[in-house]
Amino acid sequence: MKQPVNERKIHITELIVASIVLAIGIFLTLTSLDLFPFMIEDCWLITTYAGIFVVSLVVMLMQKNAIGCGATFAMLSLLIAQIFVLNGLSFRQIYPLYVLALPLGVLSAMCFIKRRGAIFGVAAAFVGMSLLLLIESFSILSIKAVLPIIVAYFGILGIIYSYFKLKHSRENK
Q: How confident is the model over 64-78, as pLDDT tens digits?
């Protein structure tokens, strides 16, 4: 069983996190006052992702927390996606990275979680969906074709899951 984190470590983590949030708030306030050569509209999203990434990283490292670990990797993928947007790609081209953020976070948190099989299955399902969205992102198929395929994909996964659960419950009887 995992050892609980001592209160001192929790309070130090809270202090670091609050300081990071304050720094982000000051930066965005100064940006909104036009003190930098860029607009707040251009930087608020990447600043928020970077801030949440750093906060999650601190929580993960200091408390060895599964949620912090998952959020770290999820925010890292969102941060990378936003960097691609700032370098000229459209959201349409990179949105599979946004979909991929959740399963990447879940997969990275698996090192702290006992029921890895179920979590891996959920993450793999989202990876499959992001790959299908990637097909649309590269204009191979239109969104009108990809969305019904995604619905069918989750229907097939549900049938497979139900079949194995039903089979498992019969074997246990």
A: 777 677 778 778 888
